[in-house]
């Protein structure tokens, strides 16, 4: 399992592309997997990891913003909590995954509470969190943010043509989506400006479009009005 910053877990691309990291094809309980990441910013804010065992496979993708601290924290703690709750419940379940998400966020917010007075930047970082977990032939997908899980499904059995279609498995938590926007408004009936149209897009508190993981400043803004 890769729990270090991505640069330490991936093989760097050749001289033609120093912003590409990749992991070649490796086995897991139900087949093979590979991973790759392309760095788009001067500072890599995203993280990804895979855990494999004879009974389960976990894949985590964490799209950080504002800095790498939140995505790295999720990378270091989410799978640990997932294993903890899976063991306590005697197997993987949607409830175990939800508890792992909640425990990871609570732990990070505790870190921010202790650190923000001397490291104020940490109060504004956050991360989307996309988890895929396969256990006992059941695929679980959990998403917080707007990263997407896509399943490639073969639709042709022809020996000469192998057609594959992409099937989306997750939904975006973005207030640009009317259904999500209505849900956020319903959760905060006493806050008339919980969602505002700013600079051509809908934003939570006029700050951010995406409901995501561990944005302390946003959570505090919502808590004050809830």
UniProtKB/TrEMBL annotation:
<dbReference type="GO" id="GO:0004722">
    <property type="term" value="F:protein serine/threonine phosphatase activity"/>
</dbReference>
<keyword id="KW-0479">Metal-binding</keyword>
<keyword id="KW-0460">Magnesium</keyword>
<dbReference type="InterPro" id="IPR015655">
    <property type="entry name" value="PP2C"/>
</dbReference>
<keyword id="KW-0904">Protein phosphatase</keyword>
<dbReference type="InterPro" id="IPR000222">
    <property type="entry name" value="PP2C_BS"/>
</dbReference>
<dbReference type="InterPro" id="IPR001932">
    <property type="entry name" value="PPM-type_phosphatase-like_dom"/>
</dbReference>
<keyword id="KW-0378">Hydrolase</keyword>
<dbReference type="InterPro" id="IPR036457">
    <property type="entry name" value="PPM-type-like_dom_sf"/>
</dbReference>
<dbReference type="GO" id="GO:0046872">
    <property type="term" value="F:metal ion binding"/>
</dbReference>
<keyword id="KW-0464">Manganese</keyword>
<comment type="similarity">
    <text>Belongs to the PP2C family.</text>
</comment>
<feature type="domain" description="PPM-type phosphatase">
    <location>
        <begin position="32"/>
        <end position="226"/>
    </location>
</feature>
<dbReference type="Pfam" id="PF00481">
    <property type="entry name" value="PP2C"/>
</dbReference>
<protein>
    <recommendedName>
        <fullName>protein-serine/threonine phosphatase</fullName>
        <ecNumber>3.1.3.16</ecNumber>
    </recommendedName>
</protein>
């Amino acid at each position: 399992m890769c729990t270090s910053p991505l640069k330490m877990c991936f093989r760097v691309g050749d001289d033609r592309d120093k912003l590409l990291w990749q992991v070649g094809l490796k086995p897991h309980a139900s087949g093979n997997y590979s991973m790759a990441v392309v760095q788009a910013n001067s500072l890599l804010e995203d993280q990804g990891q895979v855990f494999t065992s004879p009974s389960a496979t976990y894949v985590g993708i964490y799209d950080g913003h504002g800095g790498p601290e939140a995505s790295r924290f999720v990378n270091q703690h989410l799978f640990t909590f997932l294993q903890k709750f899976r063991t306590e419940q005697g197997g993987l379940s949607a409830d175990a995954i939800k508890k792992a998400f909640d425990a990871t966020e609570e732990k990070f917010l505790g870190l921010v509470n202790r650190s923000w007075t001397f490291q104020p930047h940490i109060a504004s970082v956050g991360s989307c969190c996309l988890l895929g977990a396969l256990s006992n032939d059941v695929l679980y997908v959990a998403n917080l943010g707007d990263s997407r899980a896509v399943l490639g499904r073969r639709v042709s059995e022809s020996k000469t043509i192998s057609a594959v279609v992409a099937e989306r498995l997750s939904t975006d938590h973005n207030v640009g989506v009317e259904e999500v926007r209505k849900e956020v408004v319903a959760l905060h009936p006493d806050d008339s400006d919980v969602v505002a149209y700013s600079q051509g897009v809908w934003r939570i508190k006029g700050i951010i479009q995406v409901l995501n993981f561990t944005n302390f400043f946003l959570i505090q803004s919502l808590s004050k009005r809830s």
